[in-house]
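Re: that backbone. C-alpha cells:
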C-alpha cells in the first residue's frame, strides 16, 4: 500500500446507517492498523462515536476527525434538490483543498450525481457509495414519469463518465450490470449492506420479552427502524383491522424505532381503530448496536413493508443475522432478493388486503424459507467485508 495514501470520508448526514457506515470503515482502519491517513469529515454529532472508536487504540494515530460547522450542514440540507448537489459538492471541494487527500469517498453518492457531472473538477480521484439506483426499474406509463426517468439516466451517465470518478460501490446488486453498460469504463462494484453481529443469550431475549410485556402464544412481528410513511405502517394497521379476531389474538406487532410526533399521532389513531385483540408494542426511541440484534432475536418475523422502496434494506440483513424470515414488499430489488433467495415471502405492501392475506398465510400455513440462504446473506454482508471491499479499491 502506498505510504502516502490519504483518504477523506465525507458525509453531511449522520443519522441511521450513515453513522454505521462511517463506524465500520473507521473500525476496520484502526483494527488493521492501515498505513496512510484517514480523515473523517462529517457532523460534529459524530464525534463521541469517533472518540469511542479511536481512544487509546494503537491503529488510530493516523485517523483524524474534522467536524463540519452546523451552519454549513444547515445550508446544504435546506437547499432544493437541484442546488443541494452543487452545494454539497462545493463543500466537499473545500475540504479536499484544505486536506489534500489522495482519494475522497462520498458516503452518499446519490446526492452528488449532478454536481459530479456538471460541477467544478475535483483535484483528486472520487469514489462513492450508491444507495438507491432506480434507472433500471420499470417507469410508470405517464409522460412526467418517463421524462423524470430519462433525466435521471442522463445525469447518471454524465456522472459515471467523469474521469475523476474512480469507483462506484452499489448496494443494489441488481443494478451493477446496468451501471456498467451505461459507462463501460467506470469501475462499478457490488457492495455489502453491512451489519455488525453480536452474541445474544436466551436470558437477554427472555428479559426483553418480559420488559415489553409480550403476551404468551403470540407470533411476534417486528417492524424496525426510523418509523415514517415509507415503512408501510399505515397499510399494515389497516390489514390487522381486517383480520378475524382469532388471528388478531395470535399476533404481537412490535414497532421499534424513532418517530416524529406528527406521524406518531397519526399511527396512534390507526392503532386505536385496530381494536383490542392485536397486541401492539410501541418502542418509540432510537435503538443502537447490540440492542438492535436483540429485537430481531426476539421476533418470529421481520417486516420490510416499504412503499415502492428502491435498493437494498438493512432490515433484511439484520433478519438474516438472526435467521428470521422476512415479510417484504414485492417491489424492486428488495422483493426480488427475498423471493429469489427464499428469505421469506412478499406481497403488494401498498394494499392492506394483500398484507392481510400474507399475515393469514403466515399464521395458518407458515411460510417456507431457507435458513441456509439467510446465513449466506448474513455472511455476505458483514461489516468487515463491507470495509474490505471499499478500501481494497481506493
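Recovered sequence:
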Amino acid at each position: 500500500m502506498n505510504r502516502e495514501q490519504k483518504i477523506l470520508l465525507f458525509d453531511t448526514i449522520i443519522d441511521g446507517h450513515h453513522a454505521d457506515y462511517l463506524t465500520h470503515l473507521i473500525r476496520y482502519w484502526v483494527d488493521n492498523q492501515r498505513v496512510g491517513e484517514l480523515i473523517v469529515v462529517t457532523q460534529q454529532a459524530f464525534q463521541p462515536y469517533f472518540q469511542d472508536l479511536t481512544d487509546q487504540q494503537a491503529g488510530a494515530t493516523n485517523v483524524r476527525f474534522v467536524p463540519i460547522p452546523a451552519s454549513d450542514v444547515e445550508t446544504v440540507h435546506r437547499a432544493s434538490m437541484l442546488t443541494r448537489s452543487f452545494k454539497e459538492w462545493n463543500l466537499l471541494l473545500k475540504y479536499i483543498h484544505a486536506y489534500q487527500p489522495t482519494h475522497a469517498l462520498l458516503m452518499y453518492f446519490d446526492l452528488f450525481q449532478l454536481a459530479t457531472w456538471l460541477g467544478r473538477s475535483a483535484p483528486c480521484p472520487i469514489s462513492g457509495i450508491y444507495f438507491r439506483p432506480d434507472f433500471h426499474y420499470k417507469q410508470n406509463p405517464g409522460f412526467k414519469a418517463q421524462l423524470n426517468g430519462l433525466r435521471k439516466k442522463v445525469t447518471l451517465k454524465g456522472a459515471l463518465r467523469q474521469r475523476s470518478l474512480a469507483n462506484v460501490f452499489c448496494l443494489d446488486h441488481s443494478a451493477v450490470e446496468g451501471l456498467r453498460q451505461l459507462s463501460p469504463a467506470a469501475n462499478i462494484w457490488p457492495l455489502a449492506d453491512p451489519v455488525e453481529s453480536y452474541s445474544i443469550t436466551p436470558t437477554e431475549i427472555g428479559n426483553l420479552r418480559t420488559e415489553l410485556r409480550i403476551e404468551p402464544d403470540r407470533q411476534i412481528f417486528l417492524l424496525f427502524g426510523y418509523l415514517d410513511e415509507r415503512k408501510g405502517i399505515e397499510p399494515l394497521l389497516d390489514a390487522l383491522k381486517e383480520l378475524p379476531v382469532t388471528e388478531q389474538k395470535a399476533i404481537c406487532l412490535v414497532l421499534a424505532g424513532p418517530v416524529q410526533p406528527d406521524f406518531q399521532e397519526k399511527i396512534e389513531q390507526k392503532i386505536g381503530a385496530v381494536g383490542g385483540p392485536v397486541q401492539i408494542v410501541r418502542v418509540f426511541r432510537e435503538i443502537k448496536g447490540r440492542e438492535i440484534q436483540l429485537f430481531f432475536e426476539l421476533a418470529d418475523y421481520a417486516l420490510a413493508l416499504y412503499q415502492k422502496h428502491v435498493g437494498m434494506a438493512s432490515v433484511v440483513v439484520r433478519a438474516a443475522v438472526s435467521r428470521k424470515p422476512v415479510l417484504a414488499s414485492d417491489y424492486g430489488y428488495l422483493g426480488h432478493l427475498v423471493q429469489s433467495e427464499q428469505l421469506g415471502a412478499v406481497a403488494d405492501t401498498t394494499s392492506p388486503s394483500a398484507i392481510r392475506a400474507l399475515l393469514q398465510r403466515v399464521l395458518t400455513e407458515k411460510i417456507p424459507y431457507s435458513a441456509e440462504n439467510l446465513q449466506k446473506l448474513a455472511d455476505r454482508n458483514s461489516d468487515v467485508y463491507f470495509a474490505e471491499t471499499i478500501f481494497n479499491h481506493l
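The longest strand covers residues 37-43. The mean pLDDT is 91.
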